C-alpha cells in the first residue's frame, strides 16, 4: 500500500518530534501522567506550590528543565513574572483564558506568570496554562523578594 507524499511527510515529522522529546525529557516524564504533579517555588521567606493540571508539550518541557533558579518581578499590577533561561516548546500547546491563581507561560516573551488580577484579560493563544496555585498577593510579594528555587516536589 502506497502513502501519499504528504502523509509520509507528516508521519516523518511526527516521529521526529517524538524522538526529540524523548531525547530532551527524562524517561519518567515521557510516559508518566503529569497531571497532579507539584512544582515548588521556594525562597528563604515562603513556599508556593503549583499543581499541574494540564498535560501539553509546554508543561512537559518546563518539568524537564527543573530544577531552576528564577527571579520574579511585578508586571502591570496583574502578575508576578519570571523569565526562563530559554523559551519552552509551545508546539501543540493550547492557549488559555487565564484566571486568578493560574501559573501561565507567555510564549512571546518566554516568561512564567503568577496571575493574581485577570480582570479584563481574555483568551490568548500565546498564554499557555501550566497549573494552579493558592497564594495571596502579600505571599507572592514575599516570593518575589529573593531568588526562587523551582523544583518538582517528589
Summarize the structure.
The chain is an alpha+beta fold.
Explain how this protein is built.
The protein is α+β, with helices and mostly antiparallel strands and 154 residues long. 27% of the residues lie in helices and 29% in strands. The protein has helices at 5-24, 27-31, 57-65, 137-144; strands at 38-42, 47-52, 68-70, 73-75, 79-83, 102-106, 111-115, 127-133, 148-153. Mean pLDDT is 87; it is low at 6-24.
Secondary-structure blueprint:
Blueprint: H1 5-24, H2 27-31, E1 38-42, E2 47-52, H3 57-65, E3 68-70, E4 73-75, E5 79-83, E6 102-106, E7 111-115, E8 127-133, H4 137-144, E9 148-153
Antiparallel strand pairs: 1-2, 1-9, 2-8, 3-9, 4-5, 5-7, 6-7, 6-8
Strand-residue proportion: 25-35%
The helix-and-strand class reads alpha+beta
- Per the principal axes of the C-alpha atoms, what is the gross shape? globular
Rg, rounded, reads: 17 Å
Q: Count of DSSP helices?
A: 4
Mean pLDDT: 87
How many individual β-strands? 9
Distance between the termini: 48 Å
Name the strands of the widest sheet in spatial order: 3-9-1-2-8-6-7-5-4
Provide the low-confidence segments as ranges.
6-24
How would you describe this structure in keywords?
154 residues, alpha+beta, 9-stranded antiparallel sheet, 9 strands, 4 helices
Amino acid at each position: 500500500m502506497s502513502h501519499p507524499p504528504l502523509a509520509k511527510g507528516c508521519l516523518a515529522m511526527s516521529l521526529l518530534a517524538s524522538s526529540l522529546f524523548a531525547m530532551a525529557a527524562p524517561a519518567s516524564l515521557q510516559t508518566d501522567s503529569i497531571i497532579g504533579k507539584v512544582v515548588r517555588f521556594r525562597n528563604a521567606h515562603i513556599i508556593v506550590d503549583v499543581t499541574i493540571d494540564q498535560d501539553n508539550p509546554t508543561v512537559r518541557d518546563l518539568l524537564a528543565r527543573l530544577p531552576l533558579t528564577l527571579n520574579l518581578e511585578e508586571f502591570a499590577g496583574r502578575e508576578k513574572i519570571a523569565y526562563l533561561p530559554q523559551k519552552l516548546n509551545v508546539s501543540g500547546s493550547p492557549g488559555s483564558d487565564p484566571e486568578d491563581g493560574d501559573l501561565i507561560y507567555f510564549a512571546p516573551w518566554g516568561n512564567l506568570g503568577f496571575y493574581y488580577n485577570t480582570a479584563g484579560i481574555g483568551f490568548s493563544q500565546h498564554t499557555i496554562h501550566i497549573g494552579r496555585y493558592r497564594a495571596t498577593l502579600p505571599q507572592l510579594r514575599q516570593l518575589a523578594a529573593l531568588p526562587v528555587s523551582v523544583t518538582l516536589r517528589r
